[in-house]
Design goal:
Elements (H helix, E strand, L loop, with lengths): L1 H21 L16 E3 L2 E3 L1 E6 L2 E6 L4 E8 L5 E3 L7 H6 L8 E2 L5 E2 L3 E4 L2 E4 L8 E2 L12 E5 L3 E8 L10 E10 L3 E10 L3 E2 L3 E2 L17 E3 L4 E5 L5 E7 L11 E2 L11 H6 L3 E5 L9 E7 L5 E7 L3 E5 L23 E5 L13 E2 L5 E11 L2
Antiparallel strand pairs: 1-2, 3-4, 4-5, 5-6, 7-17, 8-11, 9-10, 12-13, 13-14, 14-15, 15-28, 16-27, 18-21, 18-23, 19-20, 19-22, 22-25, 23-24, 24-28, 25-26
């Protein structure tokens, strides 16, 4: 109990120091009050941290490791908040959309019936999506308070220990997430994990973007490029079938760049589009794990001139066109989150634990899980 109290005091000190040094209330974008994030959840202190470097500012909370705000300039130098988020921790707790800006794990995506095998032994996970397990379970990483390890003007290091059996996953998994703003107008995210028992891991950040600014209308006119020849087929439960399909000749071909809305008129005619209610697919970037960083996607908003390039060491990237938001949640700018007014570009491995033809998600003791993702902002004229 004494150790926990000391940790809470230290965390409060770090939160206060980070916010006072950053002058958060004078942000050029959302006016965020750090007191609205001062809350103890499950005995752990939640706070809000501002990072600044170059032309970017970012606000991140250790509740779920969420990106709350990310401000970037347009072609005229006018800044806007391009990440969907909320003005308080209470708004996150009551939101109908539960993954905004969060680190998702242990495994992103859906696992059929919540079961998979390790060395011939069936592992059973909690069920939270119909008959299936989704995004790490109800108390996945997005709903956990992460420990604060380091705070500087441009860097935030968070850690979380997922105990053996949490949400049904075997092994105690130690995770570290490093957010950093660079002088090259980049937000980078490094994710590291180790385990004491063989388990499965596939982490990502689940931020939703609108390059026109939060709540500033549709993203269907944003121009998206995904340099991938293949995407993963899913069944009606949105679980990967193991089949990898060519994008050529389908609405999923973004290799030459096109507006997000161009082929959505085919939603009822294309089975995969219909299952997703729009775009909700994983693309293959490479088939073997390596530290080589590849361009995963480029998004341009012709109106503002903002350009986002996502680069990653992951095997794939998942594109989601926010097909289910209905305006029930109101963001930090006082505007509702509406249907197809944001998009997610999730750097992740395209693997599924029950598809043996896919690269493995297994992480064994002595091994290190490591991914690196870059969100690079610039402008077109």
């Amino acid at each position: 109990m004494k150790k926990q109290a000391v940790f809470l005091v230290l965390t409060l000190f770090i939160c206060s120091k980070a916010i006072s040094q950053s002058n958060l209330n004078n942000s050029e974008c959302a006016s965020l009050n750090p007191e609205n994030f001062n809350k103890v959840i499950d005995g752990k202190q939640v706070g809000l941290f501002l990072l600044k470097n170059g032309n970017l500012t970012a606000a991140i909370t250790n509740y779920g490791g969420r990106i709350v705000s990310l401000c970037a300039p347009d072609k005229n130098g006018q800044k806007a908040d391009v990440v969907m988020g909320f003005k308080s921790i209470d708004d996150y707790l009551k939101a109908t959309g539960v993954y905004h800006g969060a680190i998702v794990g242990r495994v992103i995506g859906r696992i059929a019936k919540g079961t998979f095998e390790i060395d011939g032994k069936t592992q059973s996970l909690t069920i939270n999506n119909g008959a299936n397990h989704q995004h790490g379970g109800l108390k996945g990483f997005h709903n956990q308070v992460w420990d604060v390890k380091t705070v500087t003007d441009s860097t935030l290091v968070l850690s979380y220990i997922s105990v053996d059996g949490e949400m049904g996953y075997p092994g105690t998994l130690k995770v570290e997430a490093t957010y950093q703003l660079t002088s090259n107008n980049e937000l980078t995210l490094k994710l590291l994990a180790t385990t004491d028992k063989t388990t499965i891991v596939n982490l990502t950040n689940h931020a939703f973007f609108n390059l026109s600014g939060e709540g500033n209308g549709t993203i269907l006119d944003h121009v998206l490029t995904i340099p991938s020849n293949y995407f993963c087929a899913v069944n009606p439960d949105k679980i990967k079938t193991g089949e990898i399909l060519k994008v050529a000749g389908t609405p999923f071909d973004f290799r030459k760049g096109k507006t997000i809305g161009k082929d959505l008129i085919l939603e009822n005619a294309n089975e995969q589009l219909k299952i997703g209610g729009g775009y909700d697919q994983s693309y293959v970037l490479k088939k073997k794990k390596s530290n080589k960083i590849l361009l995963a996607a480029t998004v341009v908003d012709p109106k503002s001139g903002r350009k986002l390039e996502v680069l990653t060491t992951n095997l794939g990237v998942h594109f989601f066109s926010a097909n289910f938001f209905k305006g029930a949640d109101v963001g930090k700018m006082g505007k509702p989150f509406n249907y197809r007014e944001s998009f997610a570009i999730e750097a992740q491995d395209y693997n599924s634990p029950n598809q043996k033809s896919f690269p493995t998600l297994l992480l064994k003791p002595g091994e290190k899980y490591e991914t690196y993702t870059v969100y690079h902002f610039s402008n077109i004229k």
